[in-house]
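Weekend entry, working from home. Most of the wet-lab plans are on hold until the incubator is repaired, so I used the time to fold the two sequences that have been sitting in the queue since the last round of cloning. Logging both here for the record. First:
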Amino acid sequence: LLMPESNRESRVRNQYQNYKTIKAARGIKIAAKNLEKSMAGLPLFVGRKEDEVDYFKNEIQNILKNALNSIKLQETGVYVQASTLGSLEALLEFLETSNIPYAGINIGTVHRKDIVRASAQLDRKPQWAVVLAFDVRIERDAQDYADSVGVKIFQADIMYHLFDMFLVHRE
């Protein structure tokens, strides 16, 4: 975990200090292998021995499981996809206050399997056969499949833009 010296800009080439732990939101650089397996919004642990790695895997799985289990899905509703756990929680809270039900959730890139899950609404209430993709990429085959089965995908990096697109679709 590398962080620039205090009161220094991280984009400017300068000396970085090495840290064992960092708490709170800070601008840092992480130098490590397999970072693509990490998930934004969750703790990042370093395990040097095999038993440490197994322990940290279980820790992360429990943290994610607890967070996702606290989310109450509806029988019918939109499918929500976000880039991080925090942004997913924020979007779900916004949808709740706007009385928009959600029947499925996921974190990360929109894949074909997400469209398959969203397409379950086509048999129940077709107006909910929608994926709200917040700050995420959409794989080409996912978009193609959505187009072929009639699932709408709305993608935006700003929550309110996503909401506005959905409202236009609903009316």
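Second, folded right after the first finished:
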Amino acid sequence: MNRHYDVLIIGAGPGGYTAGIRAGQLGLKTAVVEKAELGGVCLNWGCIPTKALLHGAETAHTIASSSSLGFSTGEVSLDIGKLVGFSRSVAGRLSQGVAGLLKKNHVDHLVGTATLTAKGKVTVDGETIDADHIIVATGARPRALPGIVPDGDRIWTSTQALIPDEVPGHLLIVGSGAIGSEFASMYRDFGAEVTLVELAEHNLPVEDPDISGVVRKAFTKRGIAVHTGSHLEDVVSDGTGVSATLVEGDGTRTELRADRLLLAAGVVPNVEDLGLEALGVARTERGGFIAVDEWGKTNVAGIYAIGDVSGPPCLAHKAAHEAVATVEHLAGVAGAEAVDRNWIPGATYTRPEVASLGYTEAAARELAKKSGHSISVGRMSFAANGRAIGMEAAEGMVKAVFDDTTGELLGAHLVGPGVTELLPSFGVLRELEGTAEDIGHVVFAHPTLSEAIQEAALDALGKPLNQ
């Protein structure tokens, strides 16, 4: 007789292991199948180790800029191997933590490769296992571009960028989304010359243009060359570096030479060899992701998909949130809440940081117009914030968009020091159906960066106090 589970999850990234934990908490007999490390890309080769390296980059910046505060540091050098070792140790520690959480919640961890063979049946390295509910959480991988094929040596993906044996003299980056921009910021602080190439008309394409514009200005000031509306042609990798032709929007062509090229142009879902086609599981026309509804259900009963494999935004916290929603729904939990992908927060750990929630100003204006409403936009620059000035980090702003009729928050867009930690205030406001007036009634401690949130709300109401 085959082993049987109430829930079987394929993949143990943030979506998969969270689904396993929640299912275990609900008393469901659960297994998680993973062929690599627990924690997936985010924990092992993405969000977590990147932030550890960015901590090193921030430290390098602090040391380099400390003379303005009266410190004399002398010559400073970076042991990149030691920093990479620290980053890997952080990832390893957290991966072990996932194993402990699965065990604590009585979730079986099956090591191997899983394939769906029939409704309610999965094979794991030859063993057939029965399951009432199957959740696919296999994630995604870096997308290759025509003519730019990662070779692990001169042409990198984010994986190689996390474990360099040396800091390249010149790093050429294709793609200025969160991944490309974070590595640009990081490697510049490590001392590399950095060139950032983006096909879209503005960097950080999913962000509000006001916000990405601040980052571009800051990057340019730091010596990072940013080319938007541009692409590369004739990319050639050899033993000593990479040659390419930069083609800009106006047709200008420039020959480039770099030590390394980092390809950061999005991701593709890990759907191969899962048996999805044979079972008729539908995929999206754009990107080939597994098509799901707001509960993670596919078109085939009993099969679900969560996280990156089910489509953008491809973010760890979105995967974890979907995991809870899907498991609670299939378990029949009263009050289970579906996922609204329009309200998944974004966080980019560049210098300055970027954080966003909801609709951009342009999208919010179109949304409100459909209801016959108008919007109010409030802004507060960190250049007028005492805490930011004292930190020598006064670049950036808080921008908030509200519906004039209902007062509800439609979007929040932040760029500046520590804004990834400020953004959840807007998330709570949205969840509690608060308004700009409600923010105005809160007493914010002074001096804090968070005061910019209140000032932006007051500005939207036409009554700012400090600008």
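Plan for Monday: verify the second prediction. The first helix runs from residue 14 to 25.
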